[in-house]
Amino acid sequence: MFGLAETFSRQSDLIHLAAYKNELETIKMLHSLPKDKQKHFNELTKQLLENLEEPTNKENCAQLSRSLREEGNRVYKSKSTKNAVDVKECVLAACRLYTQAILTAEDAYDELALGFANRGMALQDFGYFQQAYDDCASAMEFGYPQKLHHKLVMRQAHCAWQLGNAQQLEEHIASLTGLQLNESYAKQLEHLQQQLKVLQAPEQLPQSPAVPRVCHKILSSQSRGRYMVATTAIKQGELIFTESAACFVPIEQRSRICQQCATSLLCAPIPCPACHQRVVYCSRRCRQLHAAIHRYECAAYRRNLLGMLGVSHLALRLLLNYLPQWLQQLQIDCCTADQLWQALICPAAEDCSVPIRQSQQSLCMITHLDKAPQEELLYHALCANLLQVYLFSCTNFCEGLQAISCQDWHLVIAALILRNAGQLLVNGHVGDAVVVDDLPSNEFALLQPRIWQRPYHLRLGCLHKLSSCQLSTAINLPYLSLCNHACNPSLRTKFDGGAVSNFAAFDIAAGEEIFNCYTLDYRHSLSEQRQQQLQEIYKFRCGCSKCARSKPDADYLAFHRYRCERAQCKQIFVPATHLNWWQQSEEQLSICCTACKEPQLMSWYDEFHLLLEHCDEPRMRGKLYTAFAALDAWLLDFHSLKLSLANELIVACFAANEAGPALDDRDYAELIKIIELWLAGIAAQSGSNSLQYISKLTYLLDMIAGRKHKVSAKQLQFMRDSFDYLANETREIFVNYYKDFIEQTS
Ligand SMILES: [Zn+2]
Ligand SMILES: [Zn+2]
Ligand SMILES: [Zn+2]
Ligand SMILES: [Zn+2]
């Protein structure tokens, strides 16, 4: 049995790629081998898809799910013996267990139905009304006993009332009226009928979201292609444009995100039961909206195929998303692969200056496959071909193509996937999100019982739980892709799931070009590293204002200045290599002073880590603060290593305090100094409106909320304003925390 890598390697040996012409010609080369080689090649693809099938043991799944649900029931029932705070904890702990039960049920529908029904009850109890509403519907969908449906409908009616949804409430009341209900249910129904009248009073129209003023335009020139310029002066922090992604894929991470809206904070994940729970949604609405894509991806998720294919997964999604529109534009009856390809690609390629639909725009974005090394081109071609074979043999994809007859559809489909992949290599983006650190893949941030007091309201001292940033999506943003590259980007991009907003990173003058940065920026990387990456992927050299300076690396190297340990030398130096040695390897790389050439012992590095291990002891903590202050002798200014050690120290001390209250006023005074230095360093490198900065600000906000620290009203307002750079779901949590614990203390 071969895995993907072995299969591709064997297939590569059979192929000799001729000079690149276009995507279709490349794919044809995989299908015009000598007969026996072709047979072997096709056989390898087929075997791979067969080998990846992972059968489930339905009995085992059902049993495991049942025991998790029963444990959930026990926890849920134990709430009757608890005080108000602990009741909330019990209810959320039950939600968590019911979620595990749902995620392990796979296609055991009876268990799924019961899991959803029970979780709906607990979610409603905690106050997640929309999610509870959905869970009742899911329970009925998966076969919850008919004679008990009225219980779930009653729950839905309650939730609809809580959510202020008069229409749904009315529907549910109608379906309950006329049923034989016991006294308690009859009373509840009567109550809801009264509430419906209140809800049906005329309501105010919701406000429409802010639309940015038009402050930029797209220009086009023969030599530069298309680019974006400011039409008026734009102030730092002003919204320049927004874009809604038609397509993204989750980056394989420990925590799962909604496949439709990319939300990373899930409290009631709804899995697809047919693909080993690898795909989850935040709501039934999202599941439904994603159904047109997932019907063709489900079998691939079942084989865990897509995570292995990198950019080709997003390429597949683009195809699934746009193909219906591309087919509509086709006006030719019957054709060969060549004719079909011409008909699809040519109208798109002809004129790129007029505004066109996103589906068309997507076909005419640039690719550099023509300049790609053979190996790379072949790899992407093999991925595209594998996905084509998958679509035709493992799904009913071909039914959608019957309107246009062509014997060689499979060549065209593979070529389209290859084309998308090529475009994404140069135009794909990566979205980030604030998440709860260190959660295993079957855990969800909003279901952690110890940190939430009620929906979207954290407990005191828990904001720093949201101090991690994670790359969560690979995302297609054709409009953002119109911006050229500079190493000091004019944009600060905020990812709100698939909705993306771009703010001015600094004041931009009228007429100035607006740049995005395709690599790490000039404060995070060496100019030569960026040039290499730009050359390799995007095929150009950067001549931006930062790169054109006589010392293009000055800003980056300012974060790497040491003072020589040797008493006779004491010179300030930046090492010639291994700038980030502490991130790179287990063994300590030797750093030499560039003035006296002597290696630096850096004994303080190991001593610091030794103290860190014992930071639950007050005496050792005292030494740790001293050791941190002493770093100033060797690590200058905001040295990256100093910031990294500050991070470790703060995380360790907060963890020690959670394990059993450990910190006293002296600790807090010391920690605040270190946190402030750390934040100033992050602001200097990433900016104070960056996600890196705001996520770490949570430690200081926890100190302020716990009245261990006071800042001026102006500083507080500044922190509060920075929340606007967070995705809506995260912003809501930060704002709630601010209102609950900080506003009234100031
Ligand atoms: Zn969603
Ligand atoms: Zn599925
Ligand atoms: Zn540059
Ligand atoms: Zn020296």
From TrEMBL:
Keywords annotated in UniProt: Methyltransferase, S-adenosyl-L-methionine, Transferase
Domain SET: 212-519
SUPFAM superfamilies (alphabetical): HIT/MYND zinc finger-like, SET domain, TPR-like
Taxonomy, superkingdom: Eukaryota
Entry's Gene Ontology molecular function annotations: histone deacetylase binding; N-methyltransferase activity; protein methyltransferase activity; S-adenosylmethionine-dependent methyltransferase activity
Keyword rRNA-binding: no
GO cellular component: cytoplasm; nucleus
GO process annotations (BP): methylation
Alphabetized PANTHER family for the sequence: SET AND MYND DOMAIN-CONTAINING PROTEIN 4
Protein name per its UniProtKB record: SET domain-containing protein
Organism (species): Drosophila rubida
